[in-house]
Amino acid sequence: xxxxxxxxxxxxxxxxxxxxxxxxxxxxxxxxxxxxxxxxxxxxxxxxxxxxxxxxxxxxxxxxxxxxxxxxxxxxxxxxxxxxxxxxxxxxxxxxxxxxxxxxxxxxxxxxxxxxxxxxxxxxxxxxxxxxxxxxxxxxxx
Length: 142
Description:
There is one protein chain. This protein is mainly alpha-helical and 142 residues long. The chain has one domain (29-128). Helices cover 58% and strands 0% of the residues. The protein has helices at 31-52, 61-71, 75-104, 110-128. Helix 1 (31-52) runs parallel beside helix 3 (75-104) and helix 3 (75-104) packs antiparallel against helix 4. Residues 4-29 have low confidence and may be disordered.
């Protein structure tokens, strides 16, 4: 039997260790992670729109620019955006899973898909209000 240890460094990564664990933080250095999550949300929304039988409208410039605007925003706005995207992702994951399960059982949940689509649009539009206006000033919040 070989007595060589299977351990590689302190945390299994050659001793480098992990900087920290937990939720991803979307600071200025990880804007691409925010962009990927934002894009994935819209991919899921397109699937929901397809199930609802409605065309998903093209993404506007404001929607496409959201990750970059949040990246450049004040830390409090980044934190709110991060939490909002996490919340919306949870809603979409559960909702799309339920829709797909319903389709797999032979039913066609158009009404439920339309409700999820509307929920997505409302939540996404609320997230868009977090980003600063294009002129760099904060958007006016009610």
